Each structure stands twice: as structure tokens, then as C-alpha cells.
Amino acid sequence: MIEHNYYQLMEIELYADISLVKRRYRELALLYHPDKNPNNKVAEEYFKVLTQGYNILSEPDKKSDYDDLLRNYYNRKTPQTTTRVTKDKNVELREKLKRHAENQRQRIIDEYVRAENVLSHQKRYVLSILVFCTGILICYNNWFLNFLNFNIMYIVVGSFLFGFGAYMIANIVYKRRIFKKAMSIQDIGRESGPVRLFVVLFLVTPVLFLLLMQVTKTIHLSFFYEVTVVDRVVEYNEMVTYNYFVNGEEISRQAEAIPGYDYTSKVGLRVKYSLINPNISELVTTGQLINESQ
């Protein structure tokens, strides 16, 4: 089974003679040798594959066996034409497509190796995850924890970082996959996996974000809470705005109105708030508090 087209990776014509293989390998070794690209795993991986190819193509017997396998591979992929004119046109078209694919393949490898010299794949991946998480935390802190007092600029910045981080993650996965394809004998083609990854990150994360908000509120108001009186209550459009004081500071929050409950009187209403973050609170009745304590 053939895994790599070593002729393509060396940028020489198929079935080139051994002398050309040796000369081209020496040229590429000067560019991609690990000593020339320290701490670059991609260059090291590419050089390793080139060396494997050189060890095969520089030995007459091994080269002959490899060339036969390669011919059989391409013969299986090339349909037979019925007329000479059609065949000639197909051959010409295939040659153009093959040259384009080889140029594209080498460009992908060169760009990936150069990028790896600037910042490794692993570091870029970690950085993109940090950008992604930073965007979520900025939105979380300035939307949920400080609701009604949020600064819209932080929400915009957080949303941008969250979306950009998702794009970076998908882009890194995409480039890694096409690099792997460029290194192998596979056709590069289109890669839809990273697009799906971006869509999943962009659509699923807000759901997880809302779940995180609910879990945070539940934990704070179940284990780290205090109860205080309500200062003001205003009901409108099935919503309730209530105010309360914590350490001399007035805090205003919103909640859904309880159907049929009379908010004109504050009797029996209390505010349960978090001792860790007083902005996390809920409006409760004295009856609910009694039931919780029992």
C-alpha cells in the first residue's frame, strides 16, 4: 500500500531517475533539516518523510517496486477513454490538474512549515482556546454577574473574542488536516470537518453558557447566601424589578413575575442574595424560606 507520493513531495517528475532524486533530496535537506528548523515538529516530520522516500527511490530495486505500485495506483484511478481525441484531451486536462495539485500540495507544506517556525501548532491551538474562553468569561462577567449594570462595549468585545476564538480553533484544525493530506498521497479536496466544528462551537457554546449561569446561581443561592428585605418592587410586562441594599449599596435586579401574585405590597417578600457576589439574587416569599429551612 502506498502512503506517500515521494516524487510529488520532492517536486520532481514521476519516476525520475536516481541521480535527480539524490540531487533534489540534498536541496530539500538544506531547507527542512531539523538543524535548520529547531523546535519545528512539522519540518522534522516532513524531513522524516522525505528521508523515507529517499531511502526507497535511491535504491534501484526498491525504486522499481515502488514505481510499479505507484503506476498501478494511478491506473486504477484513471478511467479508460473510448476515442483517441477524448483520451488526448483527458490526458492534457489531467496533466494540468496534476501540476496544479502538486503546486498546491507543496504550497500548503511550505506555508505550514513557515508558520510552525513562527509559532508551533500546539501553542497556536492553546492560544486560540484561551481567546475563546476569554470571550466567554468577559460576556459571563459583564452580562450575567452584573446584569442591568453591564457595559455594552464589554459584551461586544467578549462576543468578538468568543467568535474569533472559535474561528481560530476551526482554522487550526483545518490547516493541520490539509497538511496531513498534502503529506500523503490523498487528494486534498475540500475539508468540511472544521466548518462543522466552527458551527458546533458557535451554536453549542451559548447553550453551555446559559447552563453555566444557572449552575452558578443555584450554587451561590443554595450554599453561600443571605436574606434581606426588599426596598422597592415594580411590576410591568410580566417582569418584576426589585431593589435591595447590601453593605449600604443599592442593587437593582429583574425577575419574571409570579403569576397571580400581588406585588403592590412588599409584605412577605424577601431577597435571597449571594454572599460572594450580591448581584446574584432572587426574589422569594417568606413561605418559601420556611419550606427550605424545614
Textual characterization of the structure:
The chain is of the alpha+beta class and 294 residues long. The chain has three domains: 6-118, Helix Hairpins (Orthogonal Bundle); 121-222, no CATH class; 224-293. 63% of the residues lie in helices and 13% in strands. It has nine helices and six strands. A three-stranded antiparallel sheet has the order 1-5-6. Strands 2-3-4 form a three-stranded antiparallel sheet, with no helix packed on it. α7 crosses α8. The N and C termini lie far apart (72 Å). Residues 80-87 have low confidence and may be disordered.
Brief description of this entry?
With 294 residues, the protein is of the alpha+beta class. The protein is 63% helix and 13% strand. It has a three-stranded antiparallel β-sheet. A three-stranded antiparallel β-sheet has the order 2-3-4, with no helix packed on it.
Kindly provide the name of the CATH class of the largest domain: Mainly Alpha
Any idea what the shape is? rod-shaped
Beta-strand content estimate: 5-15%
Our Rg estimate from Cα atoms comes to 32 Å
Q: Look at the structure and give the mean pLDDT.
A: 80
Count of DSSP strands: 6
The description of the largest β-sheet is: 3 strands, antiparallel
CATH topology of the largest domain: Helix Hairpins
Helicity level: 55-70%
Query: Which stretches are low in confidence, meaning pLDDT under 50 for 5 or more residues running?
Result: 80-87
